[in-house]
């Protein structure tokens, strides 16, 4: 085979065979094909698209390019979740202990944040002492012993994706749905879950800004998983306004703990109950946990009875973290300066633009531009209102947590543009827009 023929075939809009995709990806990952040929193929895929079968082959080949976890000898059914990333999304910190508290083993590998999107691994870093760099053996052993483990992805999970993603980043080929879907799903397949709940965000603060694109991405990922023999559910959830109140790593840990203590912001709590409910539904495999109202009741009992919080405590202790943070949030990184932004007029909130809030948190130092940038775990914002709420002029609207006055000014610039008012009532935003089930 020749790389140039495969590039030309895709350039002309034809479907590539499994053998062609395999040959290309394997040679590129080994370093036997130059970046310029891989870049040309990526651009041809972006412009011409891929069929379901091609996307499945590309994903499976990337998943098989490194280590592939098999948890079947230690866990009867491994359930995982993935969020396409958003502002204030700390769902994993709640749903993992919550499903584990229901007796469903929860073993998950998470990533770091990039741009305005947060990442679970950064939030874990806010917990003093917690080790999120586990070996595969440690990961397996904690999954078996405690039924809960959360850590960073090992370097050898889908290395082909790592190499291709870096190339996409510098060749304007990131926003291709087949490339995004195969990139995300290659890592999910390699992580060994039997059932996966995908939380695809849509809105101004998400990767996908239109419902049409979000649905198409969700469907593509669900199809890949189903073709690979995994049980799949995708939800399309709102990311026009931040999820919950807190945005920023340590602040989000505190909010997740509040939900595990039976409180927390209503939208975030509901979001977690739904995602955890779908994870239980997958784990029940059609024999138990079939009714979502009953599942919700069961989960609420686990939250209010403290079992979910106990699971998080167990996880933090097993990974060397300081569990006292669960009772005393002051042990988490704290910002030196706390500023309040008040409502500049009375009215109904018509917009709390998640992208602007995310940019503000980024300017405060909560996010990174490049993978190698360091971040400030203490900083962030708390947004006290939701779209549809009525506020009075002068009411505290946003609390800003920061360490550097210059950064504060830059963040305030974004925050001032984030909030819009209306004189007439505004409908609250839905939490979810759609659910997509996998079928082969
Ligand atoms: N996240 C990924 O892992 N890959 C993409 O292509 C986009 C988001």
Number of helices: 16
The appropriate CATH architecture of the largest domain is 3-Layer(aba) Sandwich
Shape: globular
Q: Kindly report how far apart the N and C termini lie.
A: 31 Å
- Strand % is 15-25%
Largest sheet: 4 strands, mixed
Computed over alpha carbons, the radius of gyration is 22 Å
What ligands are attached or bound here? uracil
Number of strands: 13
Helix content: 40-55%
CATH class of the largest domain, named: Alpha Beta
Q: Which fold name fills CATH's third level, the topology of the largest domain?
A: Pyrimidine Nucleoside Phosphorylase, Chain A, domain 2
Overall tally of domains:
3
Judged by helices, strands and strand pairing, the structural class is: alpha/beta
Strand order of the largest sheet: 1-4-5-13
Mean pLDDT across all amino acids = 95
**Regions with pLDDT < 50 over 5+ consecutive residues?**
none
Overall description:
With 440 residues, the protein is of the alpha/beta class. It folds into three domains: 1-68 and 159-186, Up-down Bundle (Transferase, Pyrimidine Nucleoside Phosphorylase, Chain A, domain 3), CATH 1.20.970; 79-158 and 187-328 and 433-438, Nucleoside phosphorylase/phosphoribosyltransferase catalytic domain (Pyrimidine Nucleoside Phosphorylase, Chain A, domain 2, 3-Layer(aba) Sandwich); 333-422, Aldehyde Oxidoreductase, domain 3, CATH 3.90.1170.30. The protein has 16 helices and 13 strands. It has helices at residues 3-11, 18-30, 35-48, 52-63, 91-101, 120-125, 136-146, 159-169, 177-190, 211-227, 249-260, 266-284, 292-304, 307-318, 354-364, 405-418; strands at residues 79-83, 106-110, 148-152, 195-202, 231-238, 246-247, 337-342, 347-352, 380-383, 390-391, 396-402, 419-422, 432-437. The strands form four sheets. The chain has a four-stranded mixed sheet with strand order 1-4-5-13, with helices on both faces. The protein has a four-stranded antiparallel sheet with strand order 6-9-11-7, with helices on both faces. Strands 10-8-12 form a three-stranded antiparallel sheet. Helix 1 packs parallel to helix 3 (35-48), helix 2 packs parallel to helix 4 and helix 2 (18-30) packs across helix 8 (159-169). Bound molecules: uracil. Uracil (URA) binds next to helix 9. Uracil binds next to helix 9.
């Amino acid at each position: 085979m020749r790389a140039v023929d495969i590039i030309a075939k895709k350039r002309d809009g034809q479907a590539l065979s499994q053998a062609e995709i395999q040959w290309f990806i394997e040679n590129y990952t080994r370093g036997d094909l130059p970046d310029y040929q891989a870049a040309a193929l990526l651009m041809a895929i972006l412009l011409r698209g891929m069929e379901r079968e091609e996307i499945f082959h590309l994903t499976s080949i990337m998943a098989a390019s490194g280590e592939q976890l098999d948890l079947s000898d230690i866990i009867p059914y491994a359930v995982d979740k993935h969020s396409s990333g958003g502002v204030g999304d700390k769902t994993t910190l709640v749903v993992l202990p919550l499903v584990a508290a229901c007796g469903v083993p929860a073993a998950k590998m998470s990533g770091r944040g990039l741009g305005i999107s947060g990442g679970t691994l950064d939030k874990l870093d806010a917990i003093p002492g917690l080790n999120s760099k586990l070996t595969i053996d440690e990961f397996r052993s904690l999954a078996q012993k405690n039924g809960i483990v959360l850590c960073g992805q090992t370097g050898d999970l889908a290395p082909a994706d790592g190499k291709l993603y870096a190339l996409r980043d510098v060749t304007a080929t990131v926003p291709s749905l087949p490339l995004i879907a195969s990139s995300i799903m290659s890592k999910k397949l390699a992580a060994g879950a039997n059932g996966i709940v995908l939380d695809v965000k849509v809105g101004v603060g998400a990767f996908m800004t239109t419902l049409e694109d979000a649905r198409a991405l969700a469907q593509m990922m669900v199809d890949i998983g189903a073709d690979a023999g995994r049980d799949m559910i995708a939800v399309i959830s709102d990311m026009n306004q931040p999820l919950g109140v807190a945005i920023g790593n340590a602040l989000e840990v505190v909010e997740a703990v509040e939900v595990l203590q039976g409180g927390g912001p209503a939208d975030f709590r509901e979001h977690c109950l739904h995602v955890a409910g779908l994870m239980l539904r997958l784990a029940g495999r059609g024999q138990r946990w079939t009714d979502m109202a009953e599942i919700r009741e069961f989960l609420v009992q686990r939250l209010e009875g403290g079992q979910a919080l106990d699971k998080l405590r167990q996880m933090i202790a097993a990974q060397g973290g300081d569990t006292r943070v669960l009772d005393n949030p002051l042990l988490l990184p704290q910002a030196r300066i706390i500023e309040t932004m008040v409502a500049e007029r009375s009215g109904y909130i018509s917009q709390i633009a998640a992208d602007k809030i995310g940019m503000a948190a980024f300017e405060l130092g909560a996010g990174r531009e490049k993978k190698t940038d360091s971040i400030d775990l203490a900083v962030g914002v708390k947004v006290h209102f939701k779209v549809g709420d009525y506020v009075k002029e002068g009411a505290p609207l946003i609390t800003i947590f920061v360490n550097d006055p210059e950064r504060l000014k830059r963040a305030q610039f974004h925050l001032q543009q984030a909030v819009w008012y209306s004189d007439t009532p505004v409908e609250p935003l839905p939490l979810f827009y759609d659910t997509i089930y996998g079928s082969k």
